[in-house]
Design brief:
The protein is α+β, with helices and mostly antiparallel strands. It contains 13 helices and 21 strands.
């Protein structure tokens, strides 16, 4: 399998990330990190492969089950043994392509690579990896990719006494600060998202949609014809369905007197955009317009707080209180309290953005230049069948911040 050569990410980018990780992780323990594995969809069919973001950040490789080893001044890749069926139907892994992409010269077969790694593991007290998540995350209701757990099990088989150090905090800190190539990819994803939204949400187009899935189909077409794809499953929700924060069915019918909420983002070279726009299917009512203006006002307040040194915990508390004032003005609550505000605004205002749409980062660390995060306040009133969310992507700059996703679409009616 050959890699696309037009990538803005060179082998020097990935080599630089590995070097920064070495500098941040000052220990002498070998570093061992795995790619994700394929997940069964049904029968002999798999879900589309999605690479582990940390592994891609260090290698640029989009193959499953490859292992990266960084041991003092040595680094090498271990590639899985593929069956004849895999080679015939999915193609072979080309070692030279892995080296060109990652900048790592040594690529070993599974047997040869594990012989070398096992010999090292038997001699050390510690090894560093990214700790596996639980097999099932109760709060979110989904299973996790088992590749990290499988790697840990295999390392423990070689030396059951080896202590594993978690690299996740180090990688989160590195990935939190975006490099120029990353900012360019994020901006490209945002531009594609904005262009597509402008195209599909024009008043003449809106009048022709009968169902949410028609809007989703046009969104997909717009992304694909711009050589992109969805960074996450899009949310296309009208009326009361917009009050389900992660509504994904996208199959309801559109009514002229309802609002339509889209929470969508294109992906460019693994980097995500994440925008939410709420529009009126026809002419908005005064109540809908008032609620929209309240959300827009809260978003402007939140954006104004973002600058180097901002602590997100304090920022979220300030936004929550300001939202409380707006909810009281709207007659939705009488007193401002956490419980009252969260009844109508049940999610955080901001999250980091990058290789994952909800990217890693340290929420207890003051913001620094070149951090990218979203700002997405919302008001959800199921009893009025109104859900409004406005989301933009923000870059922290030395002077304050810059809205990367500003567009004429940041209004209720087109």
């Amino acid at each position: 399998m050959e890699f696309v050569t037009e990538s803005r990410f060179t082998s020097e980018f990935f080599a630089g990330n590995r070097q920064r990780l070495r500098e941040l992780f000052t220990g002498t323990a070998p570093i061992v990190i795995t790619a994700n594995g394929l997940l069964q969809k049904g029968g002999d069919n798999t879900f589309a492969f999605a690479q582990d973001a940390n592994f891609w950040y260090l290698t640029g490789i989009d193959e499953p089950d490859v292992i990266l080893v960084m041991d003092r001044d040595k680094e090498y890749l271990i590639v899985p043994e593929l069956s004849q069926v895999q080679r015939t139907f999915d193609g072979a892994i080309v070692d030279e392509a892995l080296s060109r992409r990652s900048g790592i010269d040594k690529v070993y077969s599974d047997k040869a690579g594990w012989e070398q790694l096992a010999g090292r593991l038997k001699k050390v007290k510690h090894a560093a990896t990214v700790a596996p998540a639980p097999g099932y995350i109760d709060d979110l209701g989904f299973y996790t990719n088992p590749a990290r757990a499988r790697l840990v099990q295999r390392m423990k088989t070689e030396n059951e006494a080896v202590e594993l150090l978690d690299l996740a905090p180090h990688l989160s800190r590195l990935r939190m600060i975006k490099q120029p190539e990353e900012l360019a990819a994020i901006q490209a994803a945002i531009d594609i998202t904005n262009q597509t939204l402008k195209e599909i949400l024009a008043a003449r187009k809106l009048a022709g949609y009968g169902h949410e899935y028609e809007v989703e189909a046009e969104l997909t077409r717009g992304f694909r014809r711009r050589a992109s794809d969805h960074a996450f499953t899009p949310i296309v929700a009208s009326g009361e369905r917009a009050c389900t924060i992660h509504y994904l069915a996208n199959n309801g019918s559109l009514a002229a007197d309802e609002l339509l909420l889209l929470d969508v983002g294109a992906e460019v070279e693994h980097y995500a955009a994440d925008l939410a726009r709420t529009v009126a299917v026809s002419t908005p009512t005064r109540r809908q317009q008032t609620i929209y203006e309240a959300v827009a006002d809260v978003q402007a307040f939140a954006i104004d707080l973002l600058k180097p040194g901002t602590l997100l915990k304090e920022y979220e508390a300030s936004v929550e209180h300001y939202m409380g004032e707006k909810l009281r003005e709207l007659g939705l609550i009488k007193t401002i309290s956490h419980e009252n505000v969260r009844h109508y605004f049940p999610h955080a205002t901001s999250h980091f953005l990058g290789l994952n749409v909800h990217d890693v980062g340290d929420y207890n660390r003051p913001l620094e230049p070149d951090v990218v995060l979203t700002v997405e306040p919302g008001i959800y009133i199921p009893e009025e069948a109104i859900g409004v969310r406005i989301e933009d992507d923000i870059l922290i700059t030395p002077q304050g911040n810059k809205i990367l996703s500003n567009s004429p679409l940041r209004k209720l009616s087109s």
